[in-house]
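Onboarding guide, step 5: your first structure request.
Type a short instruction followed by the sequence, for example:

Predict the 3D structure of this protein.
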Amino acid sequence: MIPLLHDFTGATVLVFGGGRVGARKARRFAREARVVVVSPDFGDADFGDSERVRASPTPDDIAEWVDRFDPPATVRDDPVVAAVATGGASPALSKHLRESIEAEIAGAGGMAELTADLREELQDEGVPPADRRDAVRAVVRSSRVWKGLRRGDSNERQVARDVINDAPDSGDTR
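The system replies with structure tokens like these:
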């Protein structure tokens, strides 16, 4: 199995199954793609903005229509995305790991945006590449910055600048 992140914008995704799992997959893909769900019956689950087609295709029909893709359990804190898959062997394990990762990366999207801005600012200030890298690493490793991002503090940029200024002495870790 090869982990894959794919931009489905403008694509059509075909989902088979009218139950809870099919609905979950339809909602996930509908964020980026046109989704067609094929099933002889549909449950009460929310299929989002997907098109539903009542049909009973045979396995031979399906093989001609699509390549199989089992989407991984995904965690998003845009622009950060993490995914885990068990190849279908253990959906319960995938869910457990997704929940663990979700808790661990809370605030990662804000950290990605903050450090991208800091890198650009430091470059504009003429800070040498090695010093920029060390500064950004200090911010990423700072428990003070992570705590601020997770709490939604509005001063995370100042805290990050303080970390950068203290970086050689800090030893601050997450």
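Each response can be followed by summary notes, for example: The longest helix spans residues 108-124.
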